[in-house]
Amino acid sequence: MTQGASPSDLRSVRFRREREGGWSRLEALLIRAEKSGLTSLSFEEAQDLTATYRQTVNSLSVAREISLDQALLAYLENLTARAYLVIYAPQASIRHLFGKLIIYGIPQAFRRSIPAILISMGFMLLGGLIGYTLVMGDGSWYYTFVPGSLAGGRDPSSTRAALEATIYGTDDALLDSLGSFAAQLFSHNTAVAILMFSFGVFWAVPTIALMVYNGTVIGAFFAIFAKHGLGWDVFAWLSIHGVTELSAICIAAAGGLLLGQAVLLPGQLTRSDALRHQGRDATKLLILAAIMLVAAALIEGFLRQLVQSPGLRLTIGWGIGACWLAWLMLSGRGRRA
Amino acid sequence: MLAGVADAERTGAPRMRLFRRKNKTPVTSAELHDAAVAKSAKKRIHVTPPEGVPISFARASLGSRVGAQLLDIAITYGTLIGLLILVFWMSSLNWTAVTTFFALMSFLIRIPYYILTELMWNGRTLGKRIVKIRVVSANGRRLEPHQVVVRNLMKEAEVLTPIGLFFSLSNTSGWGQLITGLWLMLTFAVPVFSRTSQRFGDMIAGTYVIENPRLQKTVELTDRTKYATQTFEFIPRHLDIYGRFELQSLEAILRQPAEPKRDSEIAATIAKKIGYIEKVAPSNSRAFLEAFYNAQRAHLEQRQLFGDRRDNKFYSAEAED
Description:
The complex is a heterodimer. By secondary structure, chain A is mainly alpha-helical. Chain A has 2 domains: 9-87; 95-330, no CATH class. Chain A is 79% helix and 0% strand. Chain A contains 13 helices and no strands. Chain A has helices at residues 11-36, 43-66, 70-87, 94-112, 114-137, 141-145, 148-151, 160-168, 172-198, 205-227, 231-264, 271-302, 310-330. The radius of gyration of chain A is 30 Å and the shape is elongated. The N and C termini of chain A lie far apart (63 Å). In chain B, helix 4 (62-90) crosses helix 5, helix 12 packs antiparallel against helix 14 and helix 13 (260-274) packs across helix 14 (285-305). Chain B is mostly helical. Chain B is elongated. A two-stranded antiparallel sheet of chain B has the order 1-2. Chain B is built from 15 helices and 4 strands. Chain B has helices spanning 2-10, 13-19, 29-42, 62-90, 95-120, 126-131, 145-168, 174-193, 200-205, 226-231, 236-239, 244-254, 260-274, 285-305, 315-320, and strands at residues 44-47, 55-58, 133-137, 207-211. Helix content of chain B is 64%, strand content 6%. Chain B has 2 domains: 57-211, no CATH class; 221-320, no CATH class. The chains are: A mainly alpha, B mainly alpha. Chains A and B meet through helix 1, helix 2, helix 3, helix 4 and helix 9 of A and strand 2, helix 5, helix 7, helix 12 and helix 14 of B.
């Protein structure tokens, strides 16, 4: 029996001899596609690439059954792997992807997540009300809420004139440091947004707590101005960038809430699958928040102290807000991304 | 005879596995062999493309991943600092404006760099290209933009933030440094202990980091050994001893250039083990090995076609288990 099967008659050897041509063709095509891109192949060559790829996958599957030639198996395995990486490569260009994200991805994710966004805004408002009422009742509460680094010399002991100066200040040193203040605030806000988002995984509790806390800071801040009858002015002053910035933070927090929801109420899925599923929208919300924060930083750095009238501040702030809303509500309707 | 010994050594193994799956130290040679095979299998990752035939990739080693990460950091921050020097040189900006610029740019250059490069080159940043590793999707489909974004957003929390904090806190507080040090160690420990060496970002995105597969075409061994096959003759009894593992070890040796001393030793060992009576002259040992390889492979492949897979020389013990 042993001598009957002469090695050249081995099934695996015959198999190799029959198919080797296809493998070499695939290898040559692959090397070209890897070097100069799939677009360098002609139509026929591209067809041949997929055809020889399927043949090779098939060969690999057969060889695993009938051949004990380790080197051949390794060669086929690596050839298939290389071809797989070329054939199943992303085919959309960066520009196309970015366009799709802006036109369809983000607005659709936003519309799907409106309940979560409203809830996170609700928590911030709740915090704002708490902070406002407490500081209106007793000014010393202010120190409990507002960290020194953010107060910027604005606290309950400030005089009306001093407070007014921070809203309508025009002195040069201040303007000079505005840029760096904006950058500092921007990195602070980004950190807050990322925290809100990623801590959502812990059953959404830290996200909600942070939202309420941030609300109290704003409420307390608002209250000290309101005590001096500057409520309207500070509202305008906050509006110009706050509309964008606070919305961005609410949106990032809504992403966190989605993650928390996946952990709390995974439904029929396992928790990790639910996280992965919700993660799609949540990530888009985070990207949206990042875009809005960059915009807010630019507005904050260059427009806030340059535009002085409350009316104009309000118009610009809420006008930009309306633009965001129009994009998010109207774009990408009627087609799923 | 061998089967009996191995069987005796191996009794009780299934029962023990119920209780201690990981820490069982291999005792018998069969178990040592299994452990070695399992260890080398752990270094590979299986991905099933839509064609339905699983492909295995070599896992990227931790060293190459750290190397790629350091290269990427050097590239991004090198560009950033170069840009900064250029801006500082060209314009008369004051120091605060430059730091502002630095803060904004470092945010803009960091995550987008990783996302854009991995999208553009199918899972390879510049650093990964240099060390020849890449990201693939675990589900066997093409790498989706979403996966790239998620794994690199997590990179910010896992790698870049702690590194940044570690260096910025170096002159202020020991506690902060301790915490960020622990944080870094934790992110480093996750891929070390993960069975598929994934970091958190990889787990959430469903991606693996693998080494670029390298092609090495080889000749068909049996083609060059027709002469040898006619010189030596093997009977089925000779060929029922070894299995696939031994055959492939022999193949590895035969693919290396001849080394008379080693070859004659191996030939002697094999002849003794299989009970080959005729004397094999040392000058003929390479030919003997080649002939034995051909005969053994023909035999094993034929057995395999009939559904009798012999993974290694312990196959008969396993069959009786």
